[in-house]
Here is the input.
Amino acid sequence: MKRDMDLSRKILLSMESDDNAFGSGNISIPKFDNEVVSYHIKLLRDAGLIEAIDASSSSGFNWIPTSLTWEGHEFIDTARNEGIWNKAKNLMLKETGGMSISILKSLLTQLATKAVLGE
Here is the structure.
């Protein structure tokens, strides 16, 4: 399955907007299958952006998000602005043809810094 950074961002934004400190576990992203969302929750956990529980069973793949990590909050704070997000994504795809999370985080930070400084 291919990683979808837009979906990952949507999951993070959804988690951030949840008022339950320990997560409701009810992440539903329109137009995305639950297993695809669950796979991306696992990837976000592997990247250290969220905490999540593996509730998979013989009936299917199921990861339940519990909370954003400090790094997850930092990431979403730089990725929140749609313009900055799209610019960083387009730069990455143009120059590398892929989406590395570490380079994306760096680009987002640089672009957010420039926006704050008015450059």
The beta strands are 50-54, 63-68. The chain has a mean pLDDT of 91.
